Amino acid sequence: MANLDVFFNPKAIAVIGASRTPGKVGHAILENVKSTFRGKIYPINPNTNEILGLECFSSLKEIKEPIDLAIIAIPADLVKGAVEDCIKRKIKGVIIISAGFSEIGEKEKELALKKLSKNIRMIGPNCIGTLSPSKLDTMFIDRKKLKRPSEGSIGFITQSGAVGACLIDLASYEGVGVSKFISIGNKIDVDEIELLEYLGKDVETRCIVLYLESTEKGAELINISKKIVPNKPIIAFKSGKTEKGSKAVASHTGALAGTEEVFSAAFKQSGIIEAETTEDILDYAKILSTQPGLKSNKIAILTNGGGFGVIATDYAIKSGFDVSNLSKDAENALKKFLPKYASYNNPVDLTGDATTERYEKSINAILKDKEVSGLVIITLMQLPTVDDELLDVLRDAKMHGKPIIICAMGGAYTQERTKKLEKLGLPVYSTPERAIRAMKALLDYGKITKK
Amino acid sequence: MANLDVFFNPKAIAVIGASRTPGKVGHAILENVKSTFRGKIYPINPNTNEILGLECFSSLKEIKEPIDLAIIAIPADLVKGAVEDCIKRKIKGVIIISAGFSEIGEKEKELALKKLSKNIRMIGPNCIGTLSPSKLDTMFIDRKKLKRPSEGSIGFITQSGAVGACLIDLASYEGVGVSKFISIGNKIDVDEIELLEYLGKDVETRCIVLYLESTEKGAELINISKKIVPNKPIIAFKSGKTEKGSKAVASHTGALAGTEEVFSAAFKQSGIIEAETTEDILDYAKILSTQPGLKSNKIAILTNGGGFGVIATDYAIKSGFDVSNLSKDAENALKKFLPKYASYNNPVDLTGDATTERYEKSINAILKDKEVSGLVIITLMQLPTVDDELLDVLRDAKMHGKPIIICAMGGAYTQERTKKLEKLGLPVYSTPERAIRAMKALLDYGKITKK
Question: How far apart are CA B393 and CA B387, in angstroms?
């Protein structure tokens, strides 16, 4: 277990297959390691003396100083030899980016590599690397094309490098932070079970995302998840749900995917929140990593756009929420300052001329209502009377200790503000339905932990 | 019918209630009209001589030249008098932005206004205005806070100004164009029926979006839709689906919303494509306004990220698509240039080192397969071997005459390219599920028109 630390907190790193040529995988990896890692970096390439200003070595043997982690990006046929060199050199862990193993039918080659795992910890092969945003980036994708998220509290374990990478790119775009990201690839050694256990104990990770295509360790997955879930939510997405999709998984990773029913049942039994779509993954992670638990299914909806209030109410009721009227106390409090044409009932419609002050007073009145467990705040930031002080009001609303989520749909102006709110730890959704779906994931998690 | 033209092609406009004060509704409207309208503009405000560099008039009487459209943004109590002045002045149409009528229980006031509709055409009251992107913007929201989409082929009719406005803001952000946008508000005169008929005949509109909270004209809605749908798709979203949501509609617009079942049945009978979520609205409009019909349910999926291919396949099969293998001819064509480790079957996985050339040849091979009716192209634009020439290849793929949609998930780098593709008339979706849902809407529309 503890030896996984080498992947996230190494002291010195060798990049085997570092390349001088921009656009090459071995160049991008070195560039990304260099731009994040503060320890010593040793590029390995027999054909040059320097890459990106770093002294380059022709082999590991040349380096006298201790190295604890190596990243390998060389042709598949050379990987085994490189890992053997790492073992001789007492390197503790390797991240094998190289593809060309079981995913293309080269099972023997993979098996030969797997045997070495007794002596060294391995992530991959056929993976896109790992990321701890402020410490180490071993991914092979250009940081200009695929932005990295800031340090945050979502831990990602992904069997598809592509899907995982795009999700963190999107996270960075939305202003959502990530604690650790691991692309497990063909998982010949380090797998989802061990990483779940690791992230389960990781203090920086408040919520774990697992993107799974197949597993040979169903029972272990259930066991470890059961241990983690009471303290930390796990969100899982399973792909390869249909027979055809499952065949596509086989040709993609060389692994067998189970049926949808088997996985859904296992997730349920484990207390794992299942994401039904790729959109749900980040939507659920945003709320589960930032908001306190939802004590009941009674929520309130606050809006400055009547139409949005109606849509949110429809979807909330269909999702099993109670959107009944507020308490008399809350209603009376609202009546004191709201104009006559506003709606005091739940949903509370502040109408299109709502000011920041009207939002602030309403949020306080609603959250003081003991029956209300959570609040969905819809804001049309584009309206003339809404100003940026609303962002402070929304941030301060967290002090009530109840879950609060924001719904804001719009273009550039709105999305700039959305990012600011995400950075303040408030999950923002572009449609009422996505907001309510996320609130439902929070409700489901609450039910699981109460059991 | 033809008299609705005055709202979209007026020659001279009066803005009644024009304001000098930035931030005020009457200021924003004048600013927006001025920045789009090429005809003569007459601000009406008795307290000043000039606003935004335009000569200001104290009343309509002062103006000698002909005026055909007036926009009214003054307190509710003054609206009736202003409309009467417009009638005297032979103005053909008014857009009444002012609120304070039946939506807050002032039914008498609304009825009095309604009586005037024998002599003048009215949009509103309680609406946010209209938009023809390159001709006229009468909305009261700042163009900096809420960007306007470019000229395009989607026509929007919305009963909720808020939802409609946010949707076109989002459209502009995604690079999706709009032909006409009309917020109908309390619809005392011009309503969804007449606008459907108008947009049905409008050559600039290829697809109509209808956001509806309530209607008193169910039979007419069915009849007019049946006439339009064979030539032009209509996408409708109905809010106020649950009892509670329906009550929220009542307090919001003063109208009665029917049950979900009634509306869904009416939409089905009319050949209207129903959007289940607000996200579906634009997702469906993008594909239905740009892509040719889908001749069968057999589609192909092309990807450079295996995981995305699996997710798309799963969701396509669940949605009733046939994702069976390609023809032998197509498969043989692919084998000629694809590397051994790629997948030739459907989904076709070009793998992470796919170049633009590999995409181009594959697209041609797949679209030549007579059994394949449409193609979902998944592109991880972040990968090192993908360059911007891919955008040209994707544009050229349209020449096969089969529907093509793109799935691209990611941050700023990806989204910049997404916008470019949208402007080329290719719908882009951020997740495989959204892409497939949109393709399903296209399939459904095809089935309707075949009947």
Answer: 11
Tell me what the mean pLDDT of segment A239-245 comes to. 80
Does the beta-carbon distance from B166 to A142 stay under 8 Å? no
Can you tell me the distance from the alpha carbon of A70 to that of A86, in angstroms, rounded to the nearest whole number? 7
The chain A residue lying nearest B257, using CA atoms, is A310
Nearest CA in chain B to A351: B252
Q: What is the CATH number of the domain that holds B357?
A: 3.40.50.261
- Say whether both B317 and B269 belong to one domain: no
Mutation site, B311, B315, B331, interface A, largest A CB count within 10 A: B311
CATH of the domain at A44: 3.40.50.720
A161, B352: Cβ pair inside 8 Å? yes
Whether A137 is in a domain gets the answer no
Place of tokens 């009947």: B451
Whether B89 and B223 share a structural domain: no
Q: Is residue A164 part of a domain?
A: yes
Q: Which of B69, B90, B125 is the last residue of a domain?
A: B125
Res A254 pLDDT > 80: no
| DSSP 8-class letter at B309 | H
Beta carbons of A280 and A440 less than 8 angstroms apart: no
Predicted complex: ipTM over 0.90: yes
Closest residue in chain A to residue B139, using alpha carbons only: A383
| B304 and B444 co-located in one domain | yes
Asked if A267 and A303 sit in the same domain, the reply is no
Q: If we measure between CA atoms, which residue out of B148, B265, B284 comes closest to residue B210?
A: B284
Place of tokens 């921009």: A22
Dihedral over alpha carbons A392, A397, A401, A405 (to 10 degrees): -100
Distance from CA of A65 to the nearest CA of B (A): 33
Q: Is the pLDDT of residue A421 over 80?
A: yes
Number of domains, chain A: 3
User: Domain range holding B78?
Assistant: 1-125
Amino acid B11: pLDDT: 97
> B-chain residues within 8 Å CB-CB of A410?
146, 166, 169-170, 173
Among B239, B259, B289, identify where a domain stops. B289
Name the residue among A173, A347, A352 with its Cβ closest to that of B248.
A347
- B23, B169, B347 member nearest A410 (Cβ): B169
In this structure, are B319 and B403 located in the same domain? yes
Give yes or no for residue A90 having a pLDDT over 50: yes
Same domain? For A441 and A337 the reply is yes
Q: How is B37-63 classified by DSSP, letter by letter? A: --SEEEEE-TT-SEETTEE-BSSGGG-
| Alpha-carbon distances of B302 from A163, A248, B326, B364, rounded to whole Å | 15, 12, 12, 11
Name the amino acid, one letter, at B355.
T
Q: Is B141 within a domain? A: no
Phi, psi at A103, each rounded to 5°: -65, -15
CA distances from B360 to B7, B181, B327, B343, B356 (A): 45, 37, 18, 16, 6
